[in-house]
Amino acid sequence: MTSESQSSRLPAHYFTAGSSSFVEFLAAHAPEHLPGAAGRSSAPAGSGVGGQSAERGSGQVSAPHGTTIVASTFDGGVIMAGDRRATMGNMIAQRDIEKVYPADELSVVGIAGTAGLAVEMVRLFQTELEHFEKIEGMTLSLEGKANRLSSFIRSNLGMAMQGLAVVPLFAGYDQASDIGRIFSYDVTGGRYEEHDYYSVGSGSPFARGSLKKLFRAEQDADAAVRVCLQALYDAADDDSATGGPDMTRRIFPVVYTVDARGARRIHESELQVLMDAVVDQRFQRPDGPVATDPTGEATS
């Protein structure tokens, strides 16, 4: 196909050198396709916070809300897991929502907050990273990816101030240092690196307490997965917006491992075995496993 025939089908700006950012390209040439465009950049006044309805004149605003995401490092990588429940006020909006997604081959992102906006942000973030790689012929560093996500969150500040917040958790494998790293954010786009483990969402205080109890610096990937599953179980035990394992419907958390081989989702068949073991253990100890010292002995 000649350059003339290409030019006749696509506008000239598709063949002009410019920014490696897909978002900047879209903002310059087709801003109506960006999230928040065409008057959607702010929510109606009086919108409810946390997915709950708030009366406003003759109507109501209500949106499904995603909840708890946990992440934990292991030797040479990182694990991220999320429960499957979405809530809308005091109602369960969805039982099998997916809240953890691969951002690219070496990173993952988990969503907490207004579910619809969060999924839209993740898809745009995935496209942004893919576009950069195609234009530059190389991938962004892990810190670069974390910074790009920060700018996406900042662009949603207007809606966050009106109750439609998106607060993701980002993690990935750092090729330069051969370790897994975790980044958290606030609604203004502030980026913070977390060490060892972290959790976001309504069940995060309980999940983080569980992670603090069970995390071991020398743990391998299998141990880190078990720790994250126990943390989600503890979160569901105390937070009504966090869904525990649904053994009748066989709905289990979404779990990703990320290391030098890339991001891999743990298959349902593997999770079923792990969750069966967790539930069986809870029949013996409803409050979950106790912490152990480095020798493997239970601490008092």
Care to describe what's here?
- The protein is α+β, with helices and mostly antiparallel strands and 300 residues long.
- The chain has one domain (63-284): Glutamine Phosphoribosylpyrophosphate, subunit 1, domain 1.
- Helix content is 34%, strand content 23%.
- The protein has helices at residues 3-9, 22-29, 115-136, 142-155, 157-160, 204-214, 221-238, 268-284; strands at 54-56, 59-61, 65-66, 69-74, 77-82, 86-88, 91-94, 100-104, 107-110, 113-114, 169-174, 179-185, 191-194, 197-200, 254-259, 262-265.
- The strands form four sheets. A five-stranded antiparallel sheet has the order 14-4-5-15-16, with helices on one face. A five-stranded antiparallel sheet has the order 8-9-11-12-13.
- The chain is globular and about 65 Å long.
- 40% of the residues are buried.
- The model is unreliable at 1-7 and 37-60 (pLDDT under 50).
Structural Rg: 21 Å
- Number of helix segments? 8
Would you identify the CATH H-level superfamily? Answer: Aminohydrolase, N-terminal nucleophile (Ntn) domain
The share of residues in helices is: 25-40%
Uncertain segments are: 1-7, 37-60
| CATH class placement | Alpha Beta
